[in-house]
Amino acid sequence: MISFKDVAGSGKKQVTFDHVELEPATEYACEDSDITHMLAEQLLPEVKSGGFDELFRDMEMPLVKVLAEIEMAEGAKVSKPVEGSSAEKKEEGNKKTKKRDA
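RESULT FIELD:
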């Protein structure tokens, strides 16, 4: 698997993707797209079976366009976590769901 660092470098030598040579950029983008497609094939059935397809379709997917516009216009600043990471909150939610479904 090709990492972003492999094509754009890292640290002080890192360049933005628009400055990566066409051949490695193409190879990276194609692999990234292929992996994304494979993940979607595996995860979308889980989204549907979990009853989250409406949330995904009506809330999550429309936000992709908004987030892309923010990134393209000015970028997004990320602040330090307030209390607990998103991963911790997700784990708590998973535990509650498992208890409910048990």
